[in-house]
Amino acid sequence: MPRGRIEIIEEYCKGCQLCVKFCPKDCIEISTDKINPNGYLLPIFVSEDECTGCGICGWMCPECTIDVYRYIEN
Amino acid sequence: MTERILVAGNNAVARGAIQAGCKYFFGYPITPQSEIPEYMSKELPKIGGIYVQSESESGSIYMVYGGGLTGKRIMTSTSSPGLSLMAEGLSYLAEQEIPAVIVDVVRMGPGIGTGGQGAQTDYLQVTKGCGHGGYHAIVLAPASGQEIFDLMQLAFYLADKYRGPVMVITDFILGQTEEPIELRTLDFGPLPEKEWALTGKEKRGGKRVTHVAAFFTYQGILNYQMKLIEKYAEIKRTEVRYEKYLADDCDLLIVAYGSSARIARGAVDMGRANGLKLGLFRPITLWPFPVEAIAEGASKAGRVLVVEDSQGQLVEDVEASVKGRVPVHLLGMWGRHNVGGGGIIHPERVIEEVEKLNEG
Amino acid sequence: MKDKSSDVKKVTGRPDLRLLSLGMYCPGCHYGIITRVICEVIEELGVAGKAIGLAGVGCSFGGAPMTIDIDWTSCPHGRAPAMATAIKRIYPDAMVLTVQGDGDLGAIGLGCFMNALVRGENLTTIFLNNAVYGTTGGQMAPTTLLGMKTTTTPLGRDIQTNGYPLHVPELAATMRGVAYAARCTVHTPANFQKAKKSLKTAIQKQIDGIGYGIVEFVSACPPGWGLKPLECLDYISERMLEEYPLGEFKNVDKTD
Predict the structure, then answer these.
(1) Do chains B and C touch (3 or more CB pairs under 8 A)?
(2) How many separate domains does chain A show?
(3) How many domains does chain C have?
C-alpha cells in the first residue's frame, strides 16, 4: 500500500540524480530517454508502491522542484 | 541671526554634513583629515547618529555603499592614498546609482606623499573617475570654510537628486585653516522618494527590492549604460558652477580652484593695483567642468594662466575647453616659495609669472 | 491509486521564499540545497519581512538574489561584511545575512570579514566552502585541499607554493565578538537537517543581539572538481571532511 507519492516539475530539473541516490526506497530512477526542454535526463517515479512520502528527495533536490505528498489514513 | 563660529575647514565639513541631515559616518583615520571622523565620533551619537571606524578606506567606502542602500544620508572622508582604496567602491556607487558623499582632503601624491601639507595632485583622479568603467561623480571644490559648509549641504542634495556619489575636494590648507562660518541651513528643494531603498520587504507590503549587477537588468546592459550617459549629459547641462572675479574686462584670465584660487584672487588684486588687468575664473564644480564659460572667458581675455599646486592636471581640462584659440600658460607646483614640505605658491610669484608673460 | 485530492497532505515542496528560477547553479551544485536551508530557516523564524541579504561575488552573486524572495544586494568581491555592518547599524531590527564563497570571504574579503568580527557586529554569514573558485572556472581557493588539482594548481596544491587550507569557523571562534561558529554540509539528508539547526541557531543569535554568527557549508562543485554530482558526495565524505571537521566551534549566549 503506497503511503505517499511525488511530483517532479520537470522543467526545472537539471538531472543531477541526487533524488535517485537518496530515496531510501529506490522509488526513483533516471530515465535513459526522457529529456526536459533544457536537455537534462529526467528522474522517473517508478515504484510508487514503496514510497513513504518521507520527503528526503524533496530536501535534497538542489532545484527544489520535487513536491512530496503523504496519504493520510482516516 | 544665525550663529557664526570660527572653525577649521575639516570641522566645517562635519558640521555641514550634519546640517544636511547626515547621521551616519563611516571612516578611517588619515592625515590631514582625521579631525572629521574625530568630530563625527563625538557628535553623531548625541543626535541618534552612528559613527563606525572601519578597518581601511576600502572598508569605509563599502560601509558607505551599504549605508546608502538603506536610503539614509551617509558619508565618508579621506585623503588621497585613502581615496585610491575607495576607487572600486565609487565605481559601484555610480553603477548602482546609490547616493553618497565622499570628501577628499588632498595631500601631495603620488605614493605616500606627505601627510603634513597639501597639494592639488588629485584633480585627475577625482574628475576622470578614480575607479574603473567610465563613471562620473559630481566634484565640488570649495575655496573657503563657509563654502565648505555650504557645498557639503549641496553635495547631499545632488547625491539624492542624481542618485550617485558626489565628491567634495579640499586640501591640507583649507582643512586646517580656521575661518569664520555662518551655520546656515540651505534648502535646495524637494527630492523624490527613495522607493529603491533596502529596508526589508515588510516595509513595502511584502514586495522585495533587489540591487543586483547591472548586467542582470531586464532592459539589457546597453539600455542601462544609455541611462547613465543621459544622466551625465543632464548634469553637464544643469549643474555647472563657477565664480568669476573681475574676469569680464581683463587681458589675462587666471584659472584656479580651491586654495590656489584664494592665492590667485590675491594676485588679481595686487596686479590691478599695479595696472595689470587681471581676472580670475574659479571652477566650483570640477565635474561637470565649466567648458563653455572658460572658453568664452579665455577668448574675451586673450590669454590664460592656470595656477595649480600640482604637476599640471587642471591645465589639461582648461586646454581642452580653450581648444587652442588663445595661449594657455601653467604655473604649477614649481611656483612654490621653497622646496620643503611647507612650500606654497605666493601671490607675488603669480605676479612674477604674469610679468614674465607680458615680456613675451 | 488512492483518490488524489481528499486525503493527501503535501509534506515537502518548493519553499514559499524559493523563487521559481534556474538560479544559475550547475547541476548537482549544493547551493540549491543551501538555498532551501536558508528559505526554510527564515520562514520558520518568521523574519522574511525583516531580512536583507548580501551576496558576495561568486556563485552566490546572481544565484542567491534570484532564488530567495527577500531584499537583496549583490556586493563587490569580499565586501559584504562591511556593507552589512552599515545596514545593520542603520536598521538594527533587520535580519542581515551575508552569503559568501571561499574566495569572496577567505581570500579577498578575509580582512573585511575578520574586522567585522573584531567589531562584534550583529550579523550572520553563510560561508560556502567548495574549495575552488567556481564561477571563474575552478581555480585554487584558500580552502583548496592539499594535493587537490585545480586550474591554478595543475599538479595539486602544495604547501611551498600555495600554503595551507583555511579553516574559517575555527578562526572565527577565537574572536570574542563571535556568538556562533559552526561547519556543516548538506551532502546527506541527516546533515541537511543539522545544517538547518545550525543556521537557525546562528540567526537566532543575531535576533537576540548576542553577536556574530557564521555557518560554513562544505559543498560540492561538480565542474570545479571535475566530478559528477554523485561522485562529489563521496569526495566530500572521503576528502573534504577529512580536512574540514563538522561541528560547532563556538556557541555562546553572551559574548564578552
Answers:
(1) yes
(2) 1
(3) 1
| Domains of chain B with bracketed CATH | 3-183 (3.40.50.970), 243-359 (3.40.50.920)
pLDDT tens per residue, range A5-46: 999 999 999 999 999 999 999 999 999 999 999 999 999 999
Tell whether A19 lies on the interface with C, counting CB pairs under 8 A: no
ipTM of the complex: 0.94
Determine the structural domain holding residue A19 and report its residue range: 4-70
Question: Where is C47: in which H helix or E strand?
Answer: none
Taking CA atoms, what residue in C is nearest to A48?
Answer: C1
Helix axes C59-67, C31-45, angle to 10 degrees: 40
Cα(C200)–Cα(C205) distance, integer angstroms? 9
Structural contact between residues B279 and B246, judged by C-beta atoms closer than 8 angstroms: yes
CB contact under 8 A, A62 and C28: yes
- Measured in angstroms, the CA of B11 and the nearest CA of chain C are apart by 23
Q: What is the pLDDT of residues B307-317, one digit of tens each?
A: 999 999 999 99
Is the torsion defined by CA of B195, B199, B203, B205 positive or negative? positive
Closest CA to C35 of C62, C4, C74, C1: C62
Residue of C nearest to A62 (CA): C32
Specify whether the CB–CB gap between B274 and B298 falls below 8 A: no
Q: Where are the beta strands (DSSP E) in chain C?
A: 8-12, 51-55, 71-74, 95-101, 124-129, 132-133, 139-140, 178-185, 212-218, 247-251
* Helix, strand, coil percentages, rounded to 5, for chain C: 40, 20, 40
Q: Are C141 and C105 in contact (CB under 8 A)?
A: no
CATH number of the domain bearing residue C126: 3.40.50.970
**How far is it, in rounded angstroms, from Cα C24 to Cα A18?**
18
Q: Is the Cβ pair A16, C18 closer than 8 Å?
A: no
In a domain, C11, yes or no: no
Task: Flag whether the pTM goes above 0.90.
Answer: yes
Cβ of C85 and B89 within 8 Å?
no
What is residue A59's DSSP assignment? H
Report yes or no: C15 at the A interface, CB cutoff 8 Å.
Answer: yes
Q: How far is CA B72 from CA B50, B164, B248, in A?
A: 12, 13, 43
Q: How far is C253 from chain A (nearest CA, A)?
A: 30
Closest CA to C128 of C165, C168, C88: C168
